[in-house]
Amino acid sequence: MASPISCMSIFLLPLIATSLFFQVSTATFEVKADQALIDSICEQTRDVDFCKSTFNADPRTVAVDRYGLALLSIAINIDGVRATIDDTIPKIVKTLTDPVDKKRIQVCLTDYNDALVKLKAAWLASSERNYKKVIGLITDAANKIVDCDGAYRKSPPIREPPISGENDKVTKLTDITYVIIDLI
After folding, report:
1. Which of 2, 24, 25, 111 can pair with 148 through a Cys bridge, CB separation 3.0 to 4.6 Å?
2. Which of 54, 82, 83, 91 is nearest to 179 (CA)?
3. CA-based Rg of the chain, rounded to a whole angstrom?
4. How does 93-128 read in b/e, with b if 16+ C-beta sit within 10 Å?
């Protein structure tokens, strides 16, 4: 006569095995971003060196996969835009005496604040893997930076924006995000 434990094991063991098999078969295994993946992404951008140095300098890079790289590229852009709003522009404002330049930098401040809103929304959309929405939002953010640049270049006196370096970084980071999403 079979013991109650052996009878239960006849029913439970196949159930446990099936459960384990199902969990393993439905799990998704993502490989963390290694240097080869970063290099392959950066080789497709307009500024390969900027791309590589940006990811290699950020300690968050080693903890993410390709989906995380999309989030990270947006997060790095958010960090840069926020620094421009909080630090760079206020320092510039303190040095300006020309009313035209004061007005222009205020236009840029508004554009950067608008871009920040768009980038935060893009980060959220990327976390939901809604990449069509991400593309639209980062395009909108980049267009705001173009507007800032235009404030200095469309009417006299034509000048180089004092935050042209920051404008370039936003544009380059947007390019990186486009490439990553294209690979996803």
Report:
1. 111
2. 54
3. 24
4. eeeeeeeebeebbeebbebbebbbebbbbbbebbee
Q: Which two tokens stand for residue 182?
A: 């294209």
| Widest pairwise Cα distance in the chain | 100
Q: Cα(127)–Cα(121) distance, rounded to whole angstroms?
A: 10
pLDDT of residue 24: 39
The pTM of this model reads: 0.82
Q: Which of 175, 173, 153, 171 is nearest to 162 (CA)?
A: 153
Q: Which residues are CB-contacts of 30 (< 8 A; sequence separation ≥ 6)?
A: 65, 66, 67
The whole-angstrom separation of Cα 10 and Cα 184 is 45
Rounded-to-10 torsion of CA 96, 101, 106, 109: -80
The reported pLDDT for the residue numbered 142 is 98
CA distance 64 to 62: 6
CA 39 vs CA 25, 117, 133: distances in Å: 31, 30, 26
| Rounded Cα gap, residues 7 and 48, in angstroms | 65
